[in-house]
Amino acid sequence: MPNKINIAIDGHSSCGKGTLAKNIAKELGYMFIDSGAMYRAVTLYLLENEISLDEVEQNPGLLLDIDIDFRLDPMKGFYNTFLNGESVEGEIRGMRVSKWVSEVSAVKQIREFLVNKQKHMGAEKGVVMDGRDIGTVVFPDAELKIFMTAEPMVRAKRRYLELKSNNVAADLQEIYENVLHRDRFDSTREISPLMQAPDAIVLNNTEMTREEQARIALTWAKGVIMAS
Ligand code: DC
Description:
Blueprint: E1 6-11, H1 17-28, E2 31-34, H2 35-48, H3 53-58, E3 68-73, E4 78-83, E5 86-87, H4 95-105, H5 108-121, E6 127-131, H6 134-138, E7 144-149, H7 152-165, H8 172-188, E8 201-204, H9 210-227
Helix pairs in contact: 1-9, 2-4, 2-5, 4-8, 7-8
The chain binds 2'-deoxycytidine-5'-monophosphate.
């Protein structure tokens, strides 16, 4: 059996990191972890419980009431996000959460709480995790790091179609502005800003199909696994 590796996939919002990570994980029989879903689940929890970011900063112990896990949906073959035992996969993708999640993910105490969990999840290797700081902070020793990007309007259109296909109300202009806002916010925040790790390989998929990008990334992954 070849050695298992960890694969870190970082990049701008809505550029297909999740889709790519899921495909690689499925193909290699690895666990897929969507770290953005964890920030989204925390955002939903704070909104539902009317807890402000100031309160979290003053009392980070409040976060200990949050349990996040991923469970395999046998019908789809993919993992769904659960918050305190309830599936929140649909809810965390809507605009209510999208509008707040960048601010929530800029809070030091929240990042520490989730980064800790994420490091734990990757301790045994065999994980494909996507996010913003996976190659730089969560798995700085990941054997393969991919940094993804694509044109902002192309990303907005993809997210729009994804929401529509999940029957979530969507407005293309609003999504485009949200994509630009999150790019700016994620790249300029003080703690763990979105940054390309020096040893990451760039994948710009503006003009690629999902199949093309999956094929390229899988070739990279198999190459690294063979060599490790
Ligand atoms: O990947 P996504 O769009 O679902 O992520 C939602 C937000 O969470 C995004 O605005 C940035 C933040 N995030 C982060 O700060 N660090 C991560 N590892 C993953 C996501």
